[in-house]
Each structure stands twice: as C-alpha cells, then as structure tokens.
Amino acid sequence: MEKDNPLRVYVDHVLSSAKRAANLTNSLLAFSRKQAVNLEPNGINEIITGVQRLLERLLSEDIELRVQASAREITIMADRTQIEQILMNLATNARDAMTNNRVLTISTAHTSIDRAFIHRHGYGKVGTYARVTVADTGHGMDEKVKEHIFEPFFTTKEAGRGTGLGLSTVYGIVKQHDGYITVDSEPGKGTAFHLYFPSVRVKREKTKHVEPKMPSGTETILVAEDDRETLQLMKEVLREYGYTVIGAADGDEAVRNFAEHRHRIGLVIMDVIMPKKNGMEVYSEISKLDPSVKVLFVSGHARDVVLDRGVVDSRSNFLSKPIAPSLLLERLRTLLDAEAPGPP
Fold this sequence. Notes:
Strand 10 (265-271), helix 10 and strand 11 (295-299) form a beta-alpha-beta unit. The longest helix has 24 residues, at 8-31. The protein folds into two domains: 32-207, Heat Shock Protein 90 (2-Layer Sandwich); 212-337, Response regulator (Rossmann fold), CATH 3.40.50.2300. It has twelve helices and twelve strands. By secondary structure, it is of the alpha/beta class. It is elongated and about 70 Å long. Strands 2-4-5-7-6 form a five-stranded mixed β-sheet. A five-stranded parallel β-sheet has the order 9-8-10-11-12, with helices on both faces.
C-alpha cells in the first residue's frame, strides 16, 4: 500500500494491534496452562547460574543482585527456557519497584510441603520441593494489591508501562510445572515471591547440564523493534556477547539509522510489524542502499502468517518470538558467516 494512501494509517493500526494480540495470546496461554512445555530433568541452581549474567544486565547498575544457592543441587522437571522467563519477569518487576537501597536476592533451598502449608494456603500437595525465592527491597504491596497480582491484565504501573501479564505469566508457568507460588509483602518492606517446584530423584548423569558456549562476534547489529522491553533485552544479549548494537523503535528510524551507519552494519534484526513502516518496507528501502544487506526478521506471528500477509517473502530468514538468547545468537552467527545474499 502506498504511503500516501489514506487507508494506510488504519492498516498500520490493525497490524500493530494484531502484534499486541499475539503477545497477549502467548501470555494468556501460559496463564491458562495451554502453552507447550518441554519438561526435562534440570538442576535449579544451574538454571539460575546460567541466566545470572543476563539478569545483571537487565537490572540497572545501582541494583545489587545476590544469588544464594543451596549447598546441594536440587533437580526438578522443568522447561529451562520458561524458568528463565520467570526469573526475567520477576527481576524486571523488582527493578521497577525499587528506588533506594536496591537489592535483589534470588535464593534456593530444599523444602517440603506438609499439611500445615496446605491448611495455611488452601492448596498444595504433600512432598519435597525446590523453593526459589526472589526478594526485593522495593516499596512492597498491601493486602488488596496482593489479592489481584496474578490476575491477567492487573497492573500497578502507569499507562503504557506494561500489559499486566508479567505475573500472570509467571503464575501460569509455575502451574504448568505442577508447582505453587506464594508472596510475602508489606508496604515499605519489599516483596518476596516463593516458587515451589516438585523435586525429583534421577541419576546424576541425566541432570548434568553443560552450558553450551554461545557464539559471539564483534560486528555492528541494527535492531529494529518497537516493543521497548524486547528491544532492550536483545540489545543486552548482543552486547553481552561482543556485538555493537544500534537500536530503532520504528520503521522510519530503522531506515535512517541504516542510512547513517550502513558501512559498518553487518546485519539487521527486524521486527516484521512496526509503526510507520513494516519490516518488508524497511528491507525494500535499505536494500537499495546496500543490496547485500543481511536481515533476520522476527515476529510474534508464525512464519506462514506473515508470509500470507506478504510482510516477508519466502526466502527471508525468520524467527518466531519469543526467541531464546541461544537461538538468536546461533542464527545471527550463521547469517553473518554466510555469503552475502544476491539481489531480491
């Protein structure tokens, strides 16, 4: 559709709304326990250690992250990526809740749920568990807020700062792992989330997880993504592994930044649906400036959906969100090391 077409603004609005709906759907699927999970034996301490550096980058420099792991590893049946998602969601909430004396503590412990726990909380199953506690020194919550924090769309943040699905997503993932979550909080005294995951006994060789060496690089990457939190996360991951990152929050900014820095940009990570110009429109413009430009399209929609809409073509490199950092880094390295593409 031409840029001066009066219907263009409505199409952009519909596409943007569709994108938000896709992100909300993923979170609601987690809340309703319908999102696919891949449960495997994992050490909870290993998961936390593996994501610790990323959490440190997500937090601001004036926040101290303390990790207090149990002396002995605790094995749970878990989808590692989703447990990492829980930790990132809780860390982000804690960051936004703390103003002074900002300390975030993540601790693990062997524990058990007994009949007293079930009587006190009204739920639970007797057994042994891994307890993960995420505690902050933030402003805390009163009882009224605590009653609603796990409900979809409930948020205490100002307009535009969140969908209210962060904690409901955490709740849904915990339930998918047959676990439980409790919260201790008082106004002015911070908040502590306690996550309980059933522990399992398996042979040690089955639970040993060797963290793969993530591919790194020194190239400059342009990331075009209109969701602020997703853009920040991608920038932090890429910088952690050696890349220089230039951000863009919409299609127009992506074109401008590419034009200004095209001689040093090695690859563009491009959201399919963005304000002002969608991914394919941006690609059409930047490929005129550099026909050999390498682009990785990303979207909350499945590939066949964006293909049907003509937003990307069948030859495009594409990843569906949410994207695990390891997959993003591997695909990025593969594309950077490949020969430059021919003209479209």
